[in-house]
Amino acid sequence: MSGPPPPTAGLRGALGSLSARLLLAFLVPTLALFGLTGTAGYTLARASLEEELGQSLSAVAAAAASQVNGERMLTIEPGDDLQGTRTWRNLTRLLSEVQQASGVRRVFVVDVQGRVRADVGGGLPVGVEAPELARDRLELARVFAGERAASQVLFTGSDGRLYKTGYAPVRQADTVVGAVAVEGSAAFFGPLARLSRTFAVATGVALAVLAAVAVLTARGLARPLRRLMDSALRIGRGDLTTPVPPEPTREIGVLARELEVMRGALESRDRQLKLMLAGVAHEVRNPLGGIELFSGLLAEDLRAGSSTEAEGHVARIQREVAYLQRIVEDFLAFAREQPLARAPVEAPALLAGACELLAAEAEARGVKVEVEAAPARLEADGSLLTAALVNLVKNAVQASPQGARVRVTGRAEAARYAIQVHDAGPGIPEAERERIFEPFFTTREKGTGLGLPLARKIARAHGGELELTSTPGDTTFTLKLPLGAAGPG
Known about the structure:
- This protein is of the alpha+beta class.
- It has three domains: 14-190, Beta-Lactamase, CATH 3.30.450.20; 259-335, Helix Hairpins (Orthogonal Bundle); 343-482, 2-Layer Sandwich (Heat Shock Protein 90), CATH 3.30.565.
- 56% of the residues lie in helices and 17% in strands.
- The strands form three sheets. Strands 1, 2, 3, 4, 5 and 6 form a six-stranded antiparallel beta sheet that branches. A five-stranded mixed beta sheet has the order 8-10-11-13-12. Strands 7-9 form a two-stranded antiparallel sheet.
- Strand 10 and strand 11 (416-423) form a beta hairpin.
- Helix 6 packs parallel to helix 7 (250-304).
């Protein structure tokens, strides 16, 4: 049973269809435009030229009819052409002059019954019904009613060329007694056909050029898209170290940059996750070893009946369990993506509340915590900011020597509120400053290494930043946060 196609096949198929779609997008509208334009142009030109030819032929016929004596024409009878009667010769000479002067193929005269009375260029004998008139019955009806007319359709002569006929009435007094017909060649169809062929060739060349442009454009788009596809597939397979190459095309370049940003974020998150897992494993291993040791000693003391020693071991086990619990809580706090519950927070109350939570620990270490905060209102998650400040103040208290002071200050700077935590401890060596915000990096025996990374994470979640400056005897952590809509109080 076959499964779904692999992503690579789907992506490559999409790139192939891109080329086909671009080809269609180029060729179909062009073909439609050229085809409609050429057909419409040819049709309009042919109709216009046909109408002009018909008017010209009917004008020649009218000129000839004006010179024909209707009464004499009707006296021509069958056989007059064989005998060469004077009336027939005069009429034939008139028609020949018209033929030569106008350059038409044929000029003939018929009566109202359609019988030929004279024919120059056609060779029909007198008295024969002209078969050509059958196709132009409607036009002849108009002519016999006293109007000029031209055949609506072209016909092919014995020479293979197209012809058209113009008609004009022959009158005797006020009565129409016949018609003059003039056949002329539609010579314009030769150049028009050549023009049509030239246009078709030009259309074919244009389509070929556009097809080449479409193919080149498709290839130009497919190459960078294929490179992006390969990069996306590498990332999907877990290769987060190979950078996404930049692309020169603006739109695809934006995609490449965004994909590179995503790759960098995934790589950072992956590295952070590995560090966290390694840190958790390392930190958990130590208290577990202690619990195992003290639980074994506790079992021996209980068998020996030594309650005093047993109580000491229980206390140690409880301390290790509490440490394990703190590791888990810090880990969950750092790893969890918590949405911010923003609300107006008064900065002085925030700083005072965080320092108050550490008052007992500071007093036990003989360290004095001083708070000086300028009034300001923050739009922030108060509980998360309190957790971040507690970590910063706690680190400062633990780093300070007995009798020292930890100063916590807050002041507005432009559109930000800067909270600074100063301590007079030994400072942080320069080699450690690069790593101090890495998860699980700590120099303390019982530190989890998550306090400072968590504080920076909370700061950035609020659109702020956490920075460090440190020299021996003066270490300052600066937490910069955006001011609320109300700004400084």
